[in-house]
Every structure is written in C-alpha cells, then in structure tokens.
TrEMBL record:
Biological source species: Strigomonas culicis
A biological process from GO: intracellular iron ion homeostasis
Superkingdom of this protein's organism: Eukaryota
One GO cellular component term: cytosol
Domain Thioredoxin: 1-135
Record bears the keyword Ribosomal protein: no
UniProt name for this protein: Thioredoxin-like protein
Keyword ATP-binding listed: no
Keyword list, A-Z: Iron, Iron-sulfur, Metal-binding
MF GO annotations: iron-sulfur cluster binding; metal ion binding
PROSITE patterns per UniProt: GLUTAREDOXIN_2, THIOREDOXIN_1, THIOREDOXIN_2
Amino acid sequence: MQQVSSTADYTELKKKACEGLGFIVHFSASWCEPCKVVNEFFENEAATYKGKVLFAEVNCEVHEEICELEGITSVPFIAFFRTADGQQERVADVVGAKLDLLTMNTISLYGENGGKGVQRSDFAELDDYLKYLTTRKGIVAFITGTPSRPRCGFTGKLCEMLLEEGAQFVFYDVMVDNEVCERLKVYSKWPTYPQVYVDGELIGGWDVCRELKEEGELKASLKL
C-alpha cells in the first residue's frame, strides 16, 4: 500500500489509476487504532489485487488539504474509485474499520480472485454471462450504484435493509454496462431494479423484500 507524500503525489496516483486500475484510498491518522486494523487488511488485499487495484493511504494529520478536497471528516475512512470510459468516479465509501463492508466493496467493484475472476469477455453470449452472474452462490444484488452511493432510492433502501439483517452479499452495479442493464430485465422477467438473487433464485426487488421483512420471512428467504 502506497503512502501518499503530497497533494501532487495523490493527483499522480489518481491519474495512474485511470489507466484501467481500481483505486482504494484509506484516510487515516497515527493515533487511530481502528486505522491499524484497516491497514493490515489492505496490506493483504494489495498483494491479492496486485496489478489490478492501487491501494493508497493518506495521513489526515499531515495532508489536511487532500482530506478537505475529498470531504473527509473522520477516520478511518475508505474511498473506492472506478474508471469507466476514461472518467474516474468515487463510487463507494466505508466509514470505520468494517472489514465485511471493505470485502463486499472490493469484490463487487473489482472482481473476485484478485480481480482475475470471471469476466464478461469470457462468454460468447450475453445470456451466458447473465446466467453466471445470477447463479453465483449466496446473495447477489443487482442495483443502481453502490450501497453507500446508490443511484436511486429503492437501491438505497434495499441495501440498508440487507445490511440491517446482517446479510453478506455482493452487488453488481447495472449502470456500468447498459447491455447488461437492459438484457437482465428480460432474462430475469423482472422489469425494474434492484433485483435480489439467493443461490440462483430470484427473490424480487425492494417491494418484495420489504413485504418479506414485514411478514417476518426475509431472513429465511435470504437463507440467513
């Protein structure tokens, strides 16, 4: 994990990440014990995602201008960036040493197996890729945006509810690929997002999950 030495250094790292790499930044402080937990976690992740994701640490005691630039007001704070069509965007945030959320965002945004897992390019047909995505083991949420930066209210409510239930899940941001976004609605025979799958079975969207919770059946449906 790279230690940011200056504002210029931070700018250069962000530019480097635009060359097809993911970018995760840990905003920390020397007095913060939870920050040490995050650093240890990311040291392991940096080795796993070598060549796929850049990991950097910004000491907020030293680099107040960077923290002000990114709107950071507490530590530990972890920001996730993604580049699409040459444009870099901060797409997810985690506040605190919440290792489960760090894992969820890293896998969901940058892929499994250190970013070397299954890709869309591995499939000749789009429907075969959708079959892979929807039949993954566990809970998979197809959403607009990310849990911490949703693109619609229903996505935000759904993710909040899943996390409140203690669900461990991965997410797929359908806004990243318009073909996937449009075709999945046909493939799943479900015309809207979000969509929640559990062990390959479509549970439904926000309304269905809300009703299941009200009826006391959500945990069972999620196999928690």
